């Protein structure tokens, strides 16, 4: 497996009411984004792309001093997670890989053990797309819900689109996704923003892949 990692870090973090970018807030006296970039290094990714906004320009020197290999791509307009990943296509290094892992700059709790196991599962089952899922018993959360039909992943429903019944589903989306690189950017262009937030959701890739008979599954991690 030749791995590329795309880390989405362009979110504004407006709810944090801070001048410090969201991904530079610390967990365990260590910036959240450093936790995630350390994981990319540990996974021996051939390519690591950080999707940022212009607000992180002042932090690029700091990031490059610690992580010399990373490349930056900009998401200047907040049009959704699918749009953010599509912006990463400007890094031509990704084309030299066969598998892409999408992570988030504000998820420092994800572990190497979980990601490594998910990647092994992806490779063993010869999947085209895999979603890392989790069981969340407290239903008062903003996670997307995984809809399973006949034992197989059918779609992911974002919070703003969920019915009252769908909100009761405990199988939730972590946001982390593994995709065969050769299919990624072409399929991202098929995603529409026909939803309440008018955003391009990365999770819509699941339905697109299924409709085109690609092999899709989820890997359940323990919280």
Question: What does this protein look like?
Answer:
The chain has 223 residues and is of the alpha/beta class. It has a single domain, classed as Spore Coat Polysaccharide Biosynthesis Protein SpsA, Chain A. The chain is 24% helix and 25% strand. The protein has 6 helices and 9 strands. The strands form 2 sheets. The protein has a 7-stranded mixed beta sheet, sandwiched between helices. A two-stranded antiparallel ribbon has the order 6-7. Strand 1, helix 1 and strand 2 form a beta-alpha-beta unit. It starts with a strand and ends with a strand.
Keywords for this entry:
223 residues; alpha/beta; Spore Coat Polysaccharide Biosynthesis Protein SpsA, Chain A; two-stranded antiparallel ribbon
Series of secondary-structure elements, N-terminal to C-terminal: EHEHEHEHEEEEHHE
Q: Which CATH architecture would you pick?
A: Alpha-Beta Complex
SS class: alpha/beta
- For the secondary structure, the number of strands is 9
CATH C-level category: Alpha Beta
The total domain count is 1
Strand order of the largest sheet: 3-2-1-4-8-5-9
Query: What amount of the residues lies in strands?
Result: 25-35%
Helix content: 10-25%
